[in-house]
């Protein structure tokens, strides 16, 4: 990342000298420097190459300091904090989020702990609709097969036990185009509507977690509208700070994104957008507090005594991202370009491929591993990840991908293992070179997943 402090601001000479030919210039901005970036993330373990920003994100030192100030305000005088300061500050954070995502009303924005909480909120509402007879038994919820595990469990907890059916759309991977995804999604909707049933909810990932692909969410939402799907929930856990987010453009009924993954907030905080409609008043936080019935945004802003500080630092986070040239858009662009560059470097070195075209990658990319490592199961992927962490100081997720129409005995020479690399502002080229060399060393030494002496943690 090439950023530095600009020259000193230039000011016009005094008008008293009679020189009217000078035009006033605005002061030039001084953007964050590389050394300042290193200072912001100096608390990271220096022995580890962190190529997994996607799972837990990263919080700069200045934001950690801001969070501590809010925590101390509470601890110093909790009664005054909870009675007079907390709710106005959460409302301020919601207002900032509303503008960032282009929502119409601040009432459409609730702040919750994470995308898992948001999924529980939405699927609780759907489960109640089945249980109360507003949705018919056997009507469907359609979801992608690579939906986050917590979303699948929420469907199990709230929907299937209330009589709803689940249609799983299997997406191709590696994937070459949005059209492949759209075609499979249409098949899933058709299956959900068979035998005069209705699709009551479609769950669409904006960025799938594993394998990682940017899904054409706007196009899929439009198809849902055309096909009479009752409501659409876009699970965009990885989106905010990684890709452009405009909730009016996407047009979903529900949209959630974490703010601690790619938006530099401390864990954990997310927003849940619910488009204003008659259903809004029927959606509730699963933790029932004294605010029940006052709207989800107010219910979510008070779920009992807890640490709310991660929800209060959003103004400081906006200040942090604006220290970078181009702000959040500039960060997104540089992260995307750099992760594609590093993914290409790894794929060339290993003689493999990227899992999707560049325009279907966010700030993460899937890179094929050499087939000679023999990643032949989820357990193999977990074992290889542990080995890279323990022996090489590399933190990177590993994915096992069963080949299309493949059989285990026919997998010789096929790419069945992928790493998901991230790029965030603290990463440097050496992080990726360390991964490149580690994998090449394993191949040279004839190591396979079967021979790795690791403890599998499932």
What tags apply to this protein structure?
alpha/beta, Aspartate Aminotransferase, domain 1, PyrdxlP-dep_Trfase_major, seven-stranded mixed sheet, 12 strands, 15 helices, PyrdxlP-dep_Trfase, Aminotrans_V_dom, globular, disordered N terminus, 2 domains, Aspartate Aminotransferase, domain 2, 458 residues, Aminotransferase class V domain-containing protein
Task: Please give a structural write-up.
With 458 residues, the chain is of the alpha/beta class. The chain folds into 2 domains: 66-317, 3-Layer(aba) Sandwich (Aspartate Aminotransferase, domain 2); 327-451, Aspartate Aminotransferase, domain 1, CATH 3.90.1150.10. 39% of the residues lie in helices and 12% in strands. The chain contains 15 helices and 12 strands. It has helices at 34-40, 53-56, 61-76, 78-101, 115-131, 149-159, 178-192, 217-226, 247-250, 296-300, 309-312, 314-321, 327-350, 378-392, 429-444; strands spanning 49-50, 109-112, 140-144, 165-169, 199-205, 231-235, 254-258, 270-274, 364-368, 394-395, 398-400, 417-422. The strands form 3 sheets. A 7-stranded mixed β-sheet has the order 2-8-7-6-5-3-4, sandwiched between helices. Strand 5, helix 8 (217-226) and strand 6 form a beta-alpha-beta unit. The longest helix is centred in the first third of the chain and has 24 residues, at 78-101. The protein is globular, with a radius of gyration of 24 Å. Residues 88-278 form the Aminotransferase class V domain. This is Aminotransferase class V domain-containing protein.
């Amino acid at each position: 990342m090439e950023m530095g402090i600009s020259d000193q601001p230039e000011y016009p000479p005094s008008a008293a000298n009679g020189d009217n030919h000078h035009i006033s210039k605005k002061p030039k901005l001084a953007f964050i420097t590389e050394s300042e970036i290193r200072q912001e993330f100096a608390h990271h373990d220096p022995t580890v190459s962190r190529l997994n920003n996607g799972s837990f994100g990263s919080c700069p030192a200045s934001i950690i300091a801001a969070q501590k100030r809010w925590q101390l305000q509470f601890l110093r005088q909790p009664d005054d904090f909870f009675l007079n300061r907390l709710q106005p500050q959460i409302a301020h954070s919601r207002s900032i989020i509303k503008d960032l995502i282009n929502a119409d009303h601040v009432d459409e924005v609730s702040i919750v702990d994470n995308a898992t909480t948001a999924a529980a909120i939405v699927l609780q509402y759907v489960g109640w609709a089945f249980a109360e007879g507003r949705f018919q038994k056997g009507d469907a919820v359609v979801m992608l097969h690579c939906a986050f595990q917590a979303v699948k469990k929420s469907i199990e907890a709230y929907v299937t036990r209330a009589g709803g059916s689940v249609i799983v759309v299997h997406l191709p991977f590696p994937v070459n185009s949005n059209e492949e995804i759209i075609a499979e999604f249409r098949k899933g909707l058709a299956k959900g509507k068979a035998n005069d049933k209705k699709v009551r909810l479609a769950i669409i990932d904006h960025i799938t977690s594993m394998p990682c692909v940017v899904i054409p969410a706007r196009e899929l939402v439009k198809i849902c509208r055309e096909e009479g799907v009752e409501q659409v929930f876009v699970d965009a856990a990885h989106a905010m700070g990684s890709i452009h987010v405009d909730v009016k453009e996407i047009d979903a009924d529900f949209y959630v994104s974490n703010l601690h993954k790619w938006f530099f907030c401390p864990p954990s905080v997310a927003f849940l957008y619910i488009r204003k409609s008659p259903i809004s008043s029927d959606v509730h936080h699963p933790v029932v507090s004294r605010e029940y019935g006052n709207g989800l945004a107010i219910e979510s802003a008070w779920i009992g005594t807890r640490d709310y500080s991660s929800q209060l630092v959003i103004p400081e986070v906006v200040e942090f991202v604006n220290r970078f040239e181009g702000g959040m858009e500039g960060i997104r662009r540089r992260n995307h370009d750099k992760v594609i560059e590093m993914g290409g470097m790894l794929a060339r070195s290993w003689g493999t491929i990227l899992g999707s075209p560049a325009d279907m990658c966010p700030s993460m990319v899937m890179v094929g591993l050499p087939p000679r490592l023999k990643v032949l199961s989820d357990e193999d992927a977990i074992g290889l990840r542990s080995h890279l962490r323990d022996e090489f100081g590399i933190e990177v997720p590993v994915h096992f991908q069963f080949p299309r129409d493949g059989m285990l005995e026919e997998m010789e020479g096929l790419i069945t293992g992928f790493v998901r690399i991230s790029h965030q502002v603290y990463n440097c080229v050496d992080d990726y070179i360390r991964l490149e060399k580690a994998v090449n060393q394993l191949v040279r030494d004839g190591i396979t997943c079967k021979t790795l002496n690791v403890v599998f943690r499932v």
